[in-house]
Amino acid sequence: MASSSRSCSSSENRNTITLTSSDGLTFEIEENVAVQIKTLRMYLKDLPVNQRKFLVPTVTGDVLAKVIVYCKKHAENPNRDNPNYIQELKIWDKKFVNENDQYALYDLANAAKDLKVKPLIDLTYDTVPNMYELPLRSIRGILPKRYDIEFKKIVAFNASLNSNDVPNNVEEAIRDPKWKKAMEKEMFAFDKNET
Fold first, then answer.
1. Does the residue 140 lie in any domain?
2. pLDDT, tens only, 96-112
3. Residue 42 lies in a domain
4. pTM of this structure
């Protein structure tokens, strides 16, 4: 993306609110979308139209864009009492969360919590636990095969750390040729960097 600004507004004659993400991306959203975000709703009534700019320091641009898409879909709600529309919205919500992997969904849940978007909080928090399956009782506590090699490397590394003797003082370090060479390299680096 060449620009650091995204526009989520289809009309310029309506009241818009500018949101800036933690990574500097800016979004212009209409007021009916912004009121879906409780954190903004608290301030909108008191601010003049020309001062409706908010920094969202805890949410990155890609996650904020998803929150805005969600709020925009829920703001365009033409008939909240129509059972068909409610069913369509539930299907859209399910598709919306299923498009994300568990990490993106976790970020989305945190953003919804920070911005106080209650329906999105409920949706993400209901979905996250379903993404994790518990192992069968018979294999709980047994590492999967893919971890065996890494686990063995970690055990070997820890053993090598414990087997190396670390000198307690300078005299002991000077007596060991490896430590003496390491100290000479360090002093050379200090001289070279003039520190």
1. no
2. 988 888 788 888 888 88
3. yes
4. 0.58
Domain that holds residue 21: 5-131
Residue 134: predicted pLDDT? 45
Residues 6+ apart with CB under 8 A from 72: 8, 29, 33
What's the total number of domains in the chain?
2
Burial grade of 58 (CB within 10 A; 0-12, 13-18, 19 or more): middle
- CA 18 to CA 51: how far, in whole Å? 9
Residue at token pair 């526009």: 7
- Other Cβ atoms less than 10 A from the Cβ of 176: the count is 14
CATH code (residue 95): 3.30.710.10
Is 56 part of any domain?
yes
Contact 41, 35 (CB under 8 A): yes
* Residues in the chain where the model's pLDDT stays below 50: 1-13, 134-135, 137-138
